[in-house]
Amino acid sequence: MAEETLKLKDNIKIIFEGCMTIPNLMSLIRIFLIPVFAVLYIKGYIWWSVAVLAASGVSDFLDGKIARRFNQVSTLGKLLDPVADKLTVFSIAIVLFIQFKNAHSESMKAFAWVFLLFIVKDIVMILGAALIIALGARPGAAEIYGKVATFVFYIVMILIIGFGPEVGAISRTYPNLTLPESVMFVLVVIAVILTFIAFVSYLPASVRQILDNAKKKKKERG
Q1: CATH (domain of 103)
Q2: 32 CB contacts (<8 Å, ≥6 apart)?
C-alpha cells in the first residue's frame, strides 16, 4: 500500500514538472471561458458568446504550436489541453441540446439528441483518462485526428450559434442568412463522425499503455 502511494506521488510530481508555461496558461484560460460562454449564451448575449467561443478555438489552435515552437511541451499540458477541449465540447453540446429541445421546429427538437453523443463520448474519454492515470500510466498527447475533430467541431458550432435557425445570433437579425436546417444537420453529423473517429484513434495507444504498465507491475512483483 505504501509503495502504491509512493508511486502515485511520483506520478503526480511528474505531471506538474515544468508546468509553468504559456500553453498551460492558455489551456487554463480556455477552461475558465467555458462558464462565461454558457452564461452569455443562456442570457441572450449571443454575439458575445460567439466571440468567447471563437477566442477559445483560436487559443486551442495556438497553444500546441507555441508549446512545440518554444519547447514548452509538458506532461500537465498533455492533460490540460484535452481536458479543456472536452469541457468546452461538453458545455457547447449541453447548451445547444437545451436550445434545440426548446425550438419551435419539430425537426430540431427531434435532432437535439445528437448533441448527447458528444457528451457521452467526452464522459467516456474523461473516465478513461482517469483510469489510465490511476493505473500508473500517462495519457498521450492529442492525436491529429483529435485536433481535426475539435477544429471542425468549433467551426460547426460557431456556424450554428451564428447562423442556425432560431438559435443563431446573425440569423436573428438577418433571416436571409439563416442556414437551412438540412445543411445544419449534415454539418453536425460530420462533426459527430469525426469526433468518434478521433475517439477510436486514442484506443490503441491507451490499451497499449495499460497493458505495458500491467506487465511492468507483474515483473516487479515476480
Answers
A1: 1.20.120.1760
A2: none
